[in-house]
Amino acid sequence: MTAEEKKRATLDFGDELETPATLPVDPNAIKAATRAAGFRETPKSPDFALIAPTRPTRRARRKTGRTEQFATRLRADTLEAIYAYADRHEITLAETIERAMSALIDGEG
Questions:
Q1: What is the pTM (predicted TM-score) of this model?
Q2: How does pLDDT run across 72-81, given as a tens digit for each residue?
């Protein structure tokens, strides 16, 4: 088999295929036709600013330069107690944990 015989096949549809020109369609006509066919408009997504969060929005915390991450799962009441303490003393969650550790270490002494 020669290189000439190994050439890939090409598809040639010729120039006889022409795409017909599309006419502009009135959007109101489309809406009227879809309503007549029984379709309804897609409901708009809710505005997330109007949806009440399950937990009150927390205030923005100041930057502290802490770079280490600590992730854990807590019971809901423990988490709420940590947030309440931080909000009451206007400190970050990291400061709350640092104070708790300091109190635990001092208590062992």
A1: 0.41
A2: 999 999 999 9
Q: Which of 85, 22, 3 is nearest to 94 (CA)?
A: 85
d(CA 108, CA 34): 74
Length of the chain: 109
What is the DSSP code string of 51-106? SPPSSPPPPPPPP------------HHHHHHHHHHHHHHT--HHHHHHHHHHHHHH
Residue 21: band (very low, low, confident or very high) from pLDDT cuts 50, 70, 90: confident
Tell me if 94 sits within 8 A of 64, measured CB to CB.
yes
Q: Which residues of 57-80 are buried (b: 16+ CB within 10 A; e: fewer)?
A: eeeeeeeeeeeeeeeeeeeeeeee
d(CA 83, CA 88): 8
Within 8 A by CB and 6+ apart from 93, the residues are: 61, 82, 83, 86
